[in-house]
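Dear support,

I submitted the protein below through the web form. The confirmation email said the job was done, but the results page showed an empty box. After a refresh the structure appeared. I'm attaching both so you can tell me whether what I see now is the final result or a partial one.
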Amino acid sequence: MTGLPRRLAIAALACVAFAAPALAQEDWKEWDAADELGWVEGEADAPVTVIEYFSPTCSHCKEFADDVLPVVEENYIATGKVRFVTREWVRNSVDKTILTQARCLPKADGLAYLKDIFAKQDEIFVAAQVGTLPGTLMIVGTPYGITDREKFDACYQDMDIRFDMLEVDKSSEHYDVHASPTFIVDGTAYAATPTMMTPEGFTAFLDAELAKAAPATN
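What the results page shows now:
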């Protein structure tokens, strides 16, 4: 299997775990908003917080980012209804390399960089296969200041970044994440369904969560 079919197969495989799921960590506690290690959009006092665990090499995560998230950003995040947190779920070495670069940037730039990564996902699959991944990622990172191999390697080798990624990994183990994307609301994990991967389906999901969060009326 070569070419595009092979790349699509790699993308599909990247959306599930390559290892047995870890046991949930019962002693782990969700971080305060001020200590959040993910990328955040929205206000801290929004009535509903959604956490998405994603993989940069996951085709379904790209689909969500391209087709669903813009609607969420316009109708729920910008209006103060939802706080949306994006956290990595690292399942392969390509994910790890991409995320060391994203975490090397200021938060807003890191989020923009990840959106650019999704836009070039097919190119990244090819680069990973032929051994030119650093060069491709530097092209993506150049507008954000990752302009040469020295800066790329410094981000990749930064131990503070690696420790942060380990902490995020602990959070995914706590929620027993075993596929991407997975969404967490009020401590409950929801693996993405085909319906949730549409703007209409995900907005219905958010509306149901907002209804649960609404103050009771007499």
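Response: this is the final, complete result; the empty box was a page-load delay. The longest helix spans residues 59-77.
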